[in-house]
Amino acid sequence: MTPAQHELQAVIRTIFAEALGSEIGVNDDFFAMGGDSLAAERVLAALSDHLSQDLPGWALLDYPSATALAIALCP
Fold first, then answer.
1. What is the dihedral of CA 70, 46, 58, 8, to 10 degrees?
2. Which residue from 20, 19, 24, 26 is spatially nearest to 4, judged by alpha carbons?
């Protein structure tokens, strides 16, 4: 399993793991690892709380790994 490269990536991976109930690598696809629409909503809500900003519902569909989502969220 590839380790997180920075804090946001680690936070996203932790939130993914909590939503899935299992470990997930930073490059693993959230949906391929068993994520469904309800788990995705939990992820988006947790990330929105952590970042203090609303995230669009499509964010996880377009960026389904912790690495991709972290890159997309970093300005």
1. 0
2. 26
Mean pLDDT of 37-47: 96
Mutual angle of helices 7-20 and 37-51, in 10-degree steps: 150
Q: What number of other Cβ atoms are within 10 A of residue 8's Cβ? A: 18
Going from the C-alpha of 41 to that of each of 47, 67, 68, 75, the distances in angstroms are: 10, 19, 18, 23
**Helix, strand, coil shares, percent, the chain, to 5:** 55, 0, 45
Contact (CB, 8 A) for 65 and 28: yes
pLDDT surpassing 80 at residue 3: no
Q: What is the pLDDT of residue 63?
A: 97
Length of the chain: 75
